[in-house]
Design a protein that fits this description.
The chain has 121 residues and is an all-alpha fold. The protein has three helices and no strands. α1 runs antiparallel to α2, α1 packs parallel to α3 and α2 packs antiparallel against α3.
């Protein structure tokens, strides 16, 4: 096997490694988003289902904390993905444009605000 052939094979393996890394980062972003949605859902459920207990303000505070946690998780997910993507783009990896992920994150943040409004209605 010639040196040139070995070099081509190494380049091919490196390209696939970059693709696997990108896919892993996308799965991690999706996992963070699922965690944020779960946190928000738990906050809304607690606030709405337990709102008639003796101390409703405690239930509301717990709901707000869980919903805000979901919003923070969205922000951290975006920052983590952006930082990883920046390194991969420098290596020449092509992916979903960052602005699309940013818009999705922004919409999730808007849902956080709307969920908070639901608690205080």
């Amino acid at each position: 096997m010639s040196n040139n052939s070995k070099h081509d094979m190494a380049e091919h393996r490196t390209d696939w490694a970059h693709e696997r890394t990108l896919l892993a980062k996308e799965r991690t972003f999706a996992s963070w988003v699922r965690t944020g949605i779960s946190s928000m859902a738990a906050g809304l459920a607690i606030a709405k289902l337990l709102g008639s207990v003796e101390s409703p303000w405690i239930v509301r505070i717990l709901g707000v904390v869980l919903i805000l946690s979901g919003g923070i998780i969205y922000g951290l997910a975006f920052l983590s993905y952006r930082n990883a993507l920046k390194k991969l783009v420098e290596e020449g990896v092509r992916s979903t444009p960052l602005w699309i992920i940013g818009v999705i994150t922004l919409l999730l943040m808007v849902s956080t605000t709307l969920a908070l409004l639901l608690i205080f209605e």
